[in-house]
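Predict structure. Chain length: 185.
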Amino acid sequence: MRKLSGLNGFLLVIIALMPAPFAQAGDKDASQAPGILPSGYSDAVDRDVMKVREATAKFKTTEAAEAAGYKRVTDCVEYKPHGAMGYHFQNNSLLDTTLDLEHPEVLVYEKMPDGSFQLNGVEFLVPISAWKSPEPPRILGQALTKADSIGFWFLHVWTWKPSPTGLFAPWNPDVKCDAAASMNH
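Prediction complete.
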């Protein structure tokens, strides 16, 4: 974690300690994420989720994600009745054995009724073929799940849309797919 010093660090501490009524209307502060934060896991997990949110806030549009090297690799992935994951935009240059909170391998979007895409979360991926340890890769205090069918270890994190089944659940029952564009995962 980057050290903060001087006035910037002081201001961040003061802002973090402000009671909620002092937040300006319309602020999308990473720490104000109802249903996401606090996560109920630990302060360390909450800090890491905030770091992911801060790093991915610039990808609210798929155009911004594509400009940064993320390409759409799936249609909307769902698994009824458990919910959906959404559309996966993957940055292949990040596919290795390194997991980085500020550079998730996948951004997960939901197509909204107006045709726009909403960023719902991220997915961390490690190619199975590259991972040599007998222990699974880990990030955010969680072990990734091995999915032989797709050749990856993976972990979803619902950083932008709360999931009633949990922060790290693979499926979010509140994510919906257009039936014509869906596929199983």
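Summary: The first strand starts at residue 71 and ends at 72.
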